[in-house]
Amino acid sequence: MRIRDVKVLPTFVGRRNQFILKIETDEGIHGWGESGLSSRELAVEGAVRHFREFLIGKDPMNIGALWQEMYRSNYFEGGQVLTAAMSAIDIALHDVKGKALGVPVYQLLGGKQRDWVPLFAHTQASGQQMVDDVKLFVSKGWNAIRTWMWAPDERDAQGRRIFEPRESIAPTAHWLTKMREGVGSEPMVGIDYHHRLSVAEAAAFCQRMPRGTIDFLEEPIRDESPEAYEALRRMTDVPFAIGEEFASKWQFLPYIERGITQFARIDVSNVGGLTESMKVAGWCEAHYVDLMPHNPLGPICSAATVHLAAAVPNFSWMEIRSSPTEELGFYDREFFPVQCQQDGPRLIVTDTPGLGVEFDEERAAKQEYRIGETRHLRRREGAITNA
Length: 387
Known about the structure:
The chain is of the alpha/beta class and 387 residues long. The chain is 38% helix and 18% strand.
């Protein structure tokens, strides 16, 4: 069997673009992949076109060798754009191989260790609505929940969005404390600060709440400097959830080896696909770190993450953007007629050969890709701040 073509199909589904990739073979078997570099889909498409030139004619069963060839066969290796493209290709190759062998992808990764994957839900509400959302989740059987910072929709005179990090700290801490008082100690509740704070601000935020208010703090500061996170680690005992932006096992290295993160927010569609994810998972297992995968995309990334979660022992919860407070349209069955089955706060591990997901190319051809940007945030004085 040989690779006949590598196609890119960036498509707007629900509220965002999804970067869908298809690998076709000369035996009629195809595989689906997805890249997670949101709002940079056209850059990833360019990278895929480079890889396509030497992938055509190769044996799709040799996934590990193809990963190495994509990564090492140019002087400029790695980086988020290239590994996002590699991720989509790697996921699609696993789909091809699973279908060719007649087995689900988790069998290629060592076999199934769980029958369903626990999920965590997300609310972006603030104030009392956030408290009510968390109570709703608990009443519906969700025991792992992520909240969001206090971030009112404020605009400057030019209509640009304003976010003042320090002003968000007190109200966010206040309402999280109220939330914990309202739901008790049992549910696992954390917060995503989306790397919008400095080290001092993140420490001040943690100090404003009673101990045990939150079970994890996700991405409070930017992740380029492990040393900055180590400084923050010394200032607070709240567990950290870090890694959704990491583009290789090498980026994970200091965070795992130096005990900086307690939950690995690995993204299969960014880190280098399932090939790289399994290496990171084993490394995490050796350091007693659980995977808590980043998964804000569509059914293809979700399926790949389910197979990863099924095959590893060290797993906590997987992100899903379909819950009692969120229906963003990412899992549209008109685009994805075959996909993972969700049962409330769990995804069922499929026994379908390959990933267990299919995409409607004909429908996608009628749907335009929409060039769009994520948040561009400013401080009140006009300075750029983290999105």
